[in-house]
Design a protein that fits this description.
Oligomer: heterodimer
CATH class of the largest domain in chain B: Alpha Beta
CATH topology of the largest domain in chain B: D-Maltodextrin-Binding Protein, domain 2
Radius of gyration of chain A: 34 Å
Radius of gyration of chain B: 19 Å
Distance between the termini of chain A: 10 Å
Helix content of chain B: 25-40%
CATH superfamily of the largest domain in chain B: Periplasmic binding protein-like II
Distance between the termini of chain B: 35 Å
Order of helices and strands of chain A: HHHHHHHHHHHHH
Shape of chain B: globular
Number of domains of chain A: 1
Number of helices of chain A: 13
Number of helices of chain B: 11
Structural class of chain A: mainly alpha
Number of strands of chain B: 17
Strand order of the largest sheet of chain B: 6-2-7-16-8
Structural class of chain B: alpha/beta
Order of helices and strands of chain B: HHEHEEEEHEHEHEEEEHEHEHEEEHHE
Strand content of chain B: 15-25%
Shape of chain A: elongated
Helix content of chain A: over 70%
CATH architecture of the largest domain in chain B: 3-Layer(aba) Sandwich
Number of strands of chain A: 0
Largest interface: A-B, 42 and 44 residues
Chain lengths: ~450, ~325
């Protein structure tokens, strides 16, 4: 350092802004001597190397955290929100069907209702763990927890009254159904929507685009700096090649290519997870919720015993949506996966068969044959048609869940490598660059 | 005073409707109405000029003889019903003893349903040719008027206001409003419930009558009386006020409830029909006339209301 400073010629005053601080002036002055330039080059290369290493570590860790959050929290939250929603819708339907059956509640329906309630409360507990303490999702979870308890209590009272032959049981059931449809299901919908938004945000965070861009820029800068340094050295010295610097360049190239390929692979996986996983998953989930809503509408129309009313209008709306081309149920799912296409086709066919049976139910009810309408609606044939549609939807949902999990796991691959190896490689580049330039610098001593 | 009462009612109805923001639901027992509808249903009645004084008990005079079942006079509304193959009866499914769903069988039964079945019997010779359509309390007048049901038998009071929209049959039951409270309540009559919440079905005369009580109880509207009992059992309201017979059906389901006080209104029950078919009202009156005479009315009373004592004499028919 002292050598460089001693060799420094007095800078012409015109080149200096009058109030430049001393340190900057001294560093600025370095470029006028050969050893000074070498020192500057060392500083630039080491700085760029350290920056690249640091950014690689941060980018890798941040993308890793984002990907894990997406796979372990946001996406499961979406699935749980759907589970809560569909369990509530199914519980409402089951309770109404048990009411329609008359007399003692059929054991199968009791079991199904209990299973629905258990599914809803279990999903609610894990959803509570996955939501932030404040915000829309947390509000929805709180409202649902309180509401589900009240709902269960109302249904239990309805059963107790029904068991004793008291007609007020039906009124309790109707109160429970109102609570379910007008308060709980909208809250479950809100939870589902906010989970959906979190998944969308999650893809952004998992991409860690800002850090990745910064990493690319610093690596590019490092490469250019290395290239320019070597050109400068080969011109100023008689050596064409500087082995440590060449090695550093090679390492930086490997680093860059590795980082780019990890990024590209991660982004590709994320895109696949989003477009072929989360997207279709949300549509299938919507189909299942809508199908369950339709089945509930049917039971409630019959339970209200007032002919085709508002629930039947809702049924028509739901069916229109589910049979719509390029809608949530009828879509080109086969382009994503052959098996998924089959499952959704069958679900759609079975649902259409169920809708045909429902039309018959309405015809019977509207022509005054209420008892036959009820028998047909809750009878084995219609139930099987509906349940089969629902099972295909369940399978399709599992299919996409598995796809998503695979893609997210694969997206996480290499990020750990980037986090750990990135800084190490950068450090090696720094050491090599320093070694390469120090040898030249020594020549001036 | 009347306006203040109405406002209180509207505010309450709005609170009870809070749960129902999504719009298209009502639950199991009633589907078309929500609690929130009450504020709306009150309004047109309030806007309308008061009905001219009339004798609500006076119906259309029946023909001397009834046509043979299955052979209704050509061109009559009864013939239309006969061609359709069933009588459509509008009623409720949660008014124990009058029309409620039997939890064991799933069938709707009661005094009112039997009234309808007797009309079906007279038309078809088969009481089972009846379709029961559950209607909300505040849709009773409109359902009869617009023909969505043939006849309404649903603890419905004949009054002059309703006479403007529908034809009533002659009176088949004389009820009167009372109030149901918790067993440990010290209230002796509805006058002691000033400021307390008292529930009734939206669109019922009972609901309007609560607003007329001097001590000013707070009237709470629910879609149906069953919902009032639920609200009472969940401590949302302090009492339920409606016709003594409906209250008796509730007290029978809740050992912690009691019915207090004397009847403070007269509620003559009649069946409502569209006023486009006066011949149908005359026919129904003829059936009622016959049933009063041949003991059918008495046996129907004993079947459903026998627990409250021996059958009184059936209400005497009055005609215009």
């Amino acid at each position: 350092m002292s050598t460089a400073l001693a060799a420094r010629p007095a800078p012409p005053p015109v080149q200096q802004p009058p109030r430049r601080p001393g340190v900057l002036r001294r560093i600025g002055g370095l470029r006028h001597t050969s050893p000074g330039r070498l020192q500057l080059l060392i500083a630039v290369l080491v700085a760029l190397g350290l920056l690249s290493g640091l950014v690689a570590g941060v980018a890798g860790a941040s993308a890793r955290a984002g990907t894990d959050d997406l796979g372990d929290r946001a996406q499961p939250l979406l699935i749980e929100a759907e589970a809560i929603y569909s369990a509530l819708a199914d519980a409402d339907t089951t309770a109404a069907q048990a009411f329609l059956a008359g007399g003692l509640e059929p054991a199968a329906l009791t079991r199904r209702y209990d299973a629905d309630l258990e599914r809803a409360t279990t999903a609610l507990t894990s959803a509570a763990r996955r939501t932030e303490e404040n915000g829309r999702a947390a509000d929805a979870v709180r409202a649902l927890s309180a509401g589900v308890a009240t709902y269960a209590e109302l249904v239990a009272t309805a059963r107790a009254n029904n068991r004793q032959g008291k007609p007020v049981g039906a009124s309790y059931l109707s109160e429970a159904s109102r609570l379910n449809r007008e308060t709980l299901q909208p809250q479950a919908r809100a939870l589902f929507d906010s989970a959906q938004a979190e998944v969308d945000d999650g893809y952004g965070r998992a991409g860690a685009a800002g850090w990745m861009a910064l990493l690319l820029f610093s690596l590019l800068g490092l490469l250019i700096a290395l290239a320019l340094t070597q050109r400068y050295l080969s011109r100023r010295t008689h050596r064409t090649f500087n082995v440590p610097l060449l090695l550093a360049t090679a390492l930086t190239l490997v680093f860059t290519i590795g980082a780019i390929s990890i990024m590209v692979s991660q982004q590709t996986r994320l895109d696949r997870a989003a477009n072929q996983g989360s997207g279709p998953l949300a549509s299938i989930a919507e189909s299942r919720i809508l199908a369950l809503t339709a089945r509930g509408d049917e039971a409630l129309t019959l339970a209200a015993r007032a002919g085709s009313g508002p629930y039947e209008e809702d049924f028509d709306k739901v069916v229109a949506r589910l049979t719509q081309e390029r809608g949530p149920m009828v879509n080109s799912y086969d382009q994503l996966d052959w098996q998924l296409g089959q499952q959704m086709n069958r679900a759609s066919q079975q649902f259409k068969a169920y809708v045909a049976a429902h039309k018959q139910v309405r015809t019977l009810d509207n022509s005054g044959q209420y008892d036959r309408a009820v028998d047909l609606a809750i009878g084995t044939a219609t139930t099987n048609q509906f349940e089969s549609a629902r099972q295909f939807l369940d399978q399709a949902l599992e299919n996409r869940k598995a796809f998503f999990t695979d893609e997210i796991d694969a997206a996480g691959n290499g990020l750990g490598l980037l986090t750990v190896l990135g800084p190490l490689l950068a450090l090696a580049v720094c050491v090599l660059a320093f070694a390469g330039l120090r040898a030249r610098l020594e020549e001036y001593r | 005073m009347r306006i203040r009462a109405l406002l209180a009612v509207t505010a309450l109805a709005a609170t009870t409707a809070l749960a129902g923001c999504s719009g298209d639901t009502g639950g199991l027992t009633t589907d078309t109405t929500q609690a929130g509808d009450t504020s709306v249903t009150e309004a047109p009645q309030a806007e309308r000029a008061p009905a001219p004084a009339c004798n609500p008990r006076a119906s259309l005079r029946p023909a001397a003889t009834l046509p043979t079942p299955g052979d209704m006079p050509a061109g009559s509304y009864m013939e239309e019903i006969q061609k359709r193959g069933r009588l459509v009866l509008g009623t409720s499914q949660d008014t124990l003893l009058f029309s409620s769903r039997n939890p064991f069988t799933g069938q709707i039964e009661g005094f009112d349903v039997d009234m309808g079945r007797q009309i079906a019997e007279a038309i078809f010779g088969d009481a089972d040719k009846i379709q029961i359509k559950v209607i909300a309390y505040d849709k009773r007048v409109s359902s009869a008027a617009d023909g969505s049901v043939d006849i309404v038998a649903d603890t419905m009071t004949a009054n002059c206001d309703r006479w403007r929209d529908v034809n009533f049959s002659s009176i088949y039951y004389e009820a009167g409003q009372k109030v149901l409270v918790s067993k440990d309540s010290k209230a002796k009559s509805i006058e002691d419930l000033g400021g307390k919440k008292v529930c009734s079905a939206a669109g019922s005369t009972s609901f309007e009558n609560i607003g007329k009580v001097r001590s000013k109880p707070v009237a709470v509207a629910k879609p149906a009386f069953g919902d009032c009992l639920v609200a009472f059992q969940r401590n949302e309201v302090d009492g339920i006020s409606t016709d003594d017979t409906i209250l008796a059906g509730m007290a029978a389901q809740d050992p912690y409830a009691k019915v207090i006080g004397d009847k403070f209104t007269e509620e003559p029950y009649a069946m409502a029909m569209s006023n486009k078919h006066p011949e149908f009202a005359r026919f129904v009156n003829a059936v009622l006339e016959r049933n009063r005479a041949d003991g059918t009315w008495k046996s129907t009373y004993e079947r459903w209301l026998g627990d409250f004592g021996a059958a009184p004499a059936p209400p005497k028919a009055q005609y215009k």
